[in-house]
């Protein structure tokens, strides 16, 4: 399946199931893969920052995390059929790891957040093996990379905020040959730890998480303006 382009940014038209199936083949072949969430805000940022655009476009899977990406694909008669959110992609990958016997490693967030996320996920997903974790305030990066390497984890979830987490992955992939799947997960540890509540199912079902976040935190209005700006640019694009 060919990737779609929106304002020079690549987006993968894969569903959750298609990504997992493709990853299974790539892991069997010994290949490393990266997963990055793409939403209108990130596309707008990529238009201003060549480094962000490079990090997105060089990823293996650019998942369409945001209803704006679905709308843009429909406007351009693309093939994106469903949202693939970062937090839910992480959940699918954890289930995949449990099913296939792969170890996982969590890096990022505050100590209590990442530890609680680890404990709750281990309790929720049978056979999940969290090979290790580290908070986002580790100073000795060489020791951290060695810890991840020695853990034997095949999947690594990095929560440092974007684009810092993607830069960290880019800089350390070569030193972590045992890790086959890297995902920058932003605030997902906060969600899985229970510190941050997800939007109710109704909002998630209809792609209205942005509305829920705006209603509960009106200060986000400036960030939310990226959606109409993005769609206008898509409409005006030749």
UniProtKB/TrEMBL annotation:
Its EC number is 2.4.1.187. It comes from the Bacteria. Pathway: Cell wall biogenesis; teichoic acid biosynthesis. It holds the Pfam family Glyco_tran_WecG. It catalyses: UDP-N-acetyl-alpha-D-mannosamine + N-acetyl-alpha-D-glucosaminyl-di-trans,octa-cis-undecaprenyl diphosphate = N-acetyl-beta-D-mannosaminyl-(1->4)-N-acetyl-alpha-D-glucosaminyl di-trans,octa-cis-undecaprenyl diphosphate + UDP + H(+). The keyword Cell wall biogenesis/degradation applies. Keywords: Cell wall biogenesis/degradation, Glycosyltransferase, Teichoic acid biosynthesis, Transferase. InterPro entries: TagA_TarA (IPR034714), WecG_TagA_CpsF (IPR004629). One of its GO terms (molecular function) is N-acetylglucosaminyldiphosphoundecaprenol N-acetyl-beta-D-mannosaminyltransferase activity. GO terms for biological process: cell wall organization; teichoic acid biosynthetic process. It is an enzyme of class 2 (transferase). Belongs to the glycosyltransferase 26 family. TagA/TarA subfamily. PANTHER family: PTHR34136, UDP-N-ACETYL-D-MANNOSAMINURONIC ACID TRANSFERASE. Catalyzes the conversion of GlcNAc-PP-undecaprenol into ManNAc-GlcNAc-PP-undecaprenol, the first committed lipid intermediate in the de novo synthesis of teichoic acid. HAMAP family: TagA_TarA (MF_02070). This is N-acetylglucosaminyldiphosphoundecaprenol N-acetyl-beta-D-mannosaminyltransferase. The lineage of its organism: Bacteria, Bacillati, Bacillota, Bacilli, Bacillales.
């Amino acid at each position: 399946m060919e990737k779609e382009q929106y304002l020079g940014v690549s987006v993968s038209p894969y569903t959750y199931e298609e990504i997992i199936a493709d990853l299974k083949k790539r892991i069997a072949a010994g290949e490393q893969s990266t997963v990055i969430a793409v939403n209108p805000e990130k596309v707008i940022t990529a238009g201003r920052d060549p480094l962000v655009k490079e990090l997105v476009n060089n990823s293996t899977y650019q998942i369409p995390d945001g209803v704006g990406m679905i709308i843009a694909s429909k406007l351009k008669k693309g093939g994106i059929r469903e949202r693939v959110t970062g937090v839910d992609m992480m959940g699918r990958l954890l289930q995949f790891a449990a099913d296939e016997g792969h170890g996982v490693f969590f890096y990022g967030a505050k100590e209590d957040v990442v530890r609680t996320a680890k404990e709750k996920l281990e309790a929720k997903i049978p056979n999940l093996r969290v090979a290790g974790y580290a908070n986002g305030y580790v100073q000795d990066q060489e020791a951290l990379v060695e810890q991840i390497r020695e853990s034997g984890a095949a999947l690594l979830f990095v929560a440092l905020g974007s684009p810092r987490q993607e830069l960290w992955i880019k800089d350390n992939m070569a030193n972590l040959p045992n890790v086959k799947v890297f995902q920058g997960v932003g605030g997902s540890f906060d969600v899985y730890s229970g510190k941050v509540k997800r939007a109710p199912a109704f909002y998630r079902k209809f792609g209205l998480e942005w509305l829920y976040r705006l209603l509960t935190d009106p200060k986000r209005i400036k960030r939310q303006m990226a959606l109409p700006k993005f769609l206008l640019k898509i409409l005006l694009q030749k």
